[in-house]
């Protein structure tokens, strides 16, 4: 046959999904499997990793649980990867396993250049789509280049927990599935509609919050295929913690991702850790927000800043 009347290749474009209690369990399983193969492996992490009393550190706990060797690469104020620094760090360490985190659903502006360089240099890397499940599954703007990709379901859907490991079948390791949930639990939500609502809400809220003196929107524009987890804004000239408490007291569930850096980044000079983590606040734009409530929240936010 020159062409069959239907697709018959069972391997082409296949991504294997397995499920875990949380995304961090999947991430730990990857590091462990990689280290089994390369005992000298070094985990190469972004210099923007938070910790909280309640939740620990989703990115770093797996590294410390395994007492794995690690090193950080730099990010600037806008959480853009310092590509030269990444190259330098990766080149200087043994059997690197690099984590690329798509913070708040946004792949790095140089995502294609960075992943191409990693591919050309045969570097093992993982995509952290804990915040970027919709940017991957529906938008297709990230998640397909790393050997693995992880989702955190409780950040995207009304779940208490749940993590998914996507094996892109590029360079697979021996990793056991925790069988924590059925993928149909995820697919029973209308992911495309949620994707559209989040994008519409984000753009609407950007319209309300742009040009507030003393603040910087981390991502004033939304590229094709990017679906945000929240709207991060840097409060350059304000006391972030004060605004956080006042907004929550008035009924608006803002968060500060990540307000406290892990100990290993406390004295980091990378701007992501030394500046952004102290100034960032994230506003909700999720599927349960209407334009009406977003307008009320934006007004309250501006009044709180002015007070
Ligand atoms: C960027 C990022 N990656 C991974 C994780 C881990 O997610 P989970 O809470 O599902 O373990 C988190 C959250 O802690 C995160 O913010």
Describe how the helices and strands are arranged.
Layout: E1 16-20, H1 23-37, E2 42-46, H2 60-65, E3 69-73, H3 83-91, E4 96-101, H4 111-120, E5 124-128, H5 133-137, E6 148-152, E7 163-167, H6 183-187, H7 191-209, E8 216-217, E9 231-234, H8 240-249, H9 271-279, E10 280-283, H10 291-306
Parallel strand pairs: 2-3, 2-4, 4-5, 5-6
Antiparallel strand pairs: 1-7, 6-7, 8-9, 9-10
Bound molecules: pyridoxal-5'-phosphate (PLP).
Short description:
By secondary structure, the chain is of the alpha/beta class.
Low-confidence stretches: none
CATH architecture of the largest domain: 3-Layer(aba) Sandwich
What is the name of the CATH class of the largest domain?
Alpha Beta
Secondary-structure-derived class: alpha/beta
Largest β-sheet summary: 7 strands, mixed
- What is the CA–CA distance across the termini? 73 Å
Shape: globular
Please state the CA-atom Rg, rounded to the nearest Å. 20 Å
Mean pLDDT across residues: 97
- How much of the sequence lies in strands comes to 5-15%
Oligomeric state of the chains in view: single chain
Order of helices and strands: EHEHEHEHEHEEHHEEHHEH
CATH superfamily of the largest domain: Type I PLP-dependent aspartate aminotransferase-like (Major domain)
CATH topology label of the largest domain = Aspartate Aminotransferase, domain 2
Helix amount, in percent? Answer: 25-40%
Biggest sheet, spatial arrangement of strands:
1-7-6-5-4-2-3
């Amino acid at each position: 046959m020159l062409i069959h009347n239907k697709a018959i290749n069972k391997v082409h474009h296949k991504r294997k999904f397995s499920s875990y209690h949380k995304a961090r369990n999947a991430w730990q399983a990857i590091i462990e499997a990689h280290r089994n193969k390369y005992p000298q492996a070094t985990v190469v992490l972004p210099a923007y990793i938070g910790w909280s009393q309640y939740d620990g550190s989703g990115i770093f706990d797996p590294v410390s649980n395994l007492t794995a060797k690690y090193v950080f690469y730099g990010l600037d104020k806008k959480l853009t990867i310092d590509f030269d620094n990444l190259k330098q760090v990766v080149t200087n360490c043994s059997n690197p396993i690099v984590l690329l985190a798509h913070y708040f659903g946004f792949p790095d502006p140089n995502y294609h250049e960075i992943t191409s360089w990693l591919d050309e240099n045969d570097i093992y890397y993982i995509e952290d789509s804990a915040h970027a499940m919709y940017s991957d599954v529906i938008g297709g703007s990230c998640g397909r280049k790393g050997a693995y990709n992880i989702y955190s379901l409780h950040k995207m859907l009304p779940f208490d927990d749940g993590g998914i490991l996507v094996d892109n079948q590029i360079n697979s390791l021996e990793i056991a599935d925790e069988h924590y949930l059925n993928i149909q639990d995820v697919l029973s939500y209308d992911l495309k509609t949620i994707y559209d609502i989040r994008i519409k809400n984000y753009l609407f809220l950007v319209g309300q919050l742009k040009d507030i003196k003393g603040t910087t929107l981390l991502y004033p524009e939304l590229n094709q295929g990017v679906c945000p987890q929240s709207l991060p804004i840097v409060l350059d000239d304000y006391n972030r913690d004060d605004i956080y408490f006042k907004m929550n007291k008035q009924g608006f569930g803002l968060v500060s991702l990540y307000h406290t850096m892990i100990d290993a980044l406390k004295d980091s000079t990378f701007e992501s850790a030394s500046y952004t983590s102290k100034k960032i606040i994230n506003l909700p734009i999720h599927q349960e927000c209407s334009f009406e409530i977003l307008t009320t929240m934006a007004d309250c936010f501006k009044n709180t800043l002015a007070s």
